Amino acid sequence: MDPAINSLVVCSDIRHRITGRLAEAGIAIPFPQRDLHLAAGQPIEIKVIPPNRDEISR
Protein backbone atom coordinates (compact mmCIF):
# COMPACT_ATOMS: atom_id res chain seq x y z
CA MET A 1 0.00 0.00 0.00
CA ASP A 2 1.14 3.55 -0.75
CA PRO A 3 2.75 5.02 2.43
CA ALA A 4 0.76 8.26 2.10
CA ILE A 5 -2.53 6.35 1.94
CA ASN A 6 -1.43 4.03 4.73
CA SER A 7 -0.70 6.98 7.04
CA LEU A 8 -4.17 8.40 6.33
CA VAL A 9 -5.73 5.05 7.18
CA VAL A 10 -3.73 4.82 10.41
CA CYS A 11 -4.66 8.39 11.43
CA SER A 12 -8.31 7.73 10.67
CA ASP A 13 -8.23 4.51 12.68
CA ILE A 14 -6.67 6.29 15.65
CA ARG A 15 -9.34 9.01 15.55
CA HIS A 16 -12.13 6.42 15.40
CA ARG A 17 -10.66 4.56 18.36
CA ILE A 18 -10.32 7.77 20.38
CA THR A 19 -13.93 8.70 19.59
CA GLY A 20 -15.08 5.22 20.63
CA ARG A 21 -13.18 5.32 23.92
CA LEU A 22 -14.52 8.78 24.73
CA ALA A 23 -18.07 7.60 23.98
CA GLU A 24 -17.57 4.56 26.25
CA ALA A 25 -16.51 6.91 29.03
CA GLY A 26 -19.57 9.11 28.45
CA ILE A 27 -17.51 12.02 27.16
CA ALA A 28 -18.94 14.08 24.30
CA ILE A 29 -17.02 16.82 22.53
CA PRO A 30 -19.46 19.17 20.80
CA PHE A 31 -18.61 20.76 17.50
CA PRO A 32 -18.79 24.56 17.31
CA GLN A 33 -21.98 25.65 15.64
CA ARG A 34 -22.20 28.87 13.69
CA ASP A 35 -25.76 28.64 12.42
CA LEU A 36 -28.18 31.42 13.18
CA HIS A 37 -31.88 30.64 12.95
CA LEU A 38 -34.28 33.58 12.96
CA ALA A 39 -38.02 33.23 13.26
CA ALA A 40 -39.68 36.12 11.48
CA GLY A 41 -43.10 36.51 9.94
CA GLN A 42 -41.67 38.66 7.15
CA PRO A 43 -38.29 39.18 5.49
CA ILE A 44 -35.60 40.80 7.62
CA GLU A 45 -33.83 43.84 6.16
CA ILE A 46 -30.05 43.43 6.15
CA LYS A 47 -27.69 46.42 5.95
CA VAL A 48 -23.90 46.30 5.74
CA ILE A 49 -22.47 49.40 7.36
CA PRO A 50 -18.74 50.01 6.88
CA PRO A 51 -16.81 50.94 10.06
CA ASN A 52 -15.69 54.50 10.72
CA ARG A 53 -12.09 55.23 9.74
CA ASP A 54 -11.32 55.86 13.45
CA GLU A 55 -12.43 52.31 14.30
CA ILE A 56 -10.21 50.79 11.61
CA SER A 57 -7.00 52.40 12.95
CA ARG A 58 -7.49 51.07 16.49
What does this structure look like?
The chain is an all-alpha fold. It contains 2 helices and no strands. It has helices at residues 3-24, 53-56. The mean pLDDT is 84.
Q: Which structural class do you get from the secondary structure elements? A: mainly alpha
**Which shape, going by the Cα principal axes?**
elongated
Q: Specify the biggest β-sheet.
A: none
Kindly report the average pLDDT value: 84
Give the strand tally.
0
Question: How large is the count of helical segments?
Answer: 2
Gyration radius, to the nearest Å?
23 Å
Summarize the helix and strand pattern as letters.
HH
The protein's oligomeric status is single chain
> Share of helix among residues?
40-55%
Separation of the first and last Cα atoms: 54 Å
Top keywords for this entry?
mainly alpha, single chain
Detail the topology: elements first, then pairings:
Blueprint: H1 3-24, H2 53-56
Concise account of the structure shown:
The protein has 58 residues and is mainly α. It has 2 helices and no strands.
